[in-house]
Amino acid sequence: MLANKERSQMPNNKNFLLLWPTAFMRDQIPLDPRINEMLRGELMRLDGERESMTTAYRDENLLSSEHPAISWLRDCIHHAVIRYVKNSEIDYALDWHLQGWANINRFGDYHNLHNHPHAWLSGTYYVAVPETPLDLPGRADRTPGAISFFDPRPQANMNAINKDGQVDPEYRVQPKAGEILLWPAFLHHAVHPNLSENERISVSFNVVLRQHEQYLPTQ
Known about the structure:
The chain is an alpha+beta fold.
């Protein structure tokens, strides 16, 4: 389960297992401001040319572009996937391709609860994240621009007690520019509204496996 506070590792005892874990990766890509600004400029240019670019994400694969900044990002994503695989117990070669799209979230924009069918992993790279939201009336506990992930086991926390590790069904991330997140595509998530006058710019992507018999688990 994912939780809002760090969990200590379970003691190394063969009698105890962590069952049905959900591996979540959060990493900072070494940020070259020049490349990131080049990427931002290209995404804004595409947004000006393509109506509903953010919502029509299936129309084109952004990560097939040979623009230098997008090629750099594509390589960064491939390396992130390799790190994710190495952290798992998968000990055979995987064959995947990337499907990507840009998100330009202006004031009030958000993404409803969803997951990503037909993919193995999903992720997001954050190009630009507004640091200062507008001073608006209303609730003080809002987290504008954050992304929330939800425990995939329905009602798993229903009978949870203090400190048992199953209490919080939500994991919320307030991302920073240059960060990359990677998670199983089945995981439901939602993006909170942008409450800034500046754009929240990210590139989301799916890691889609090319089917091979070796992927089929033994039941």
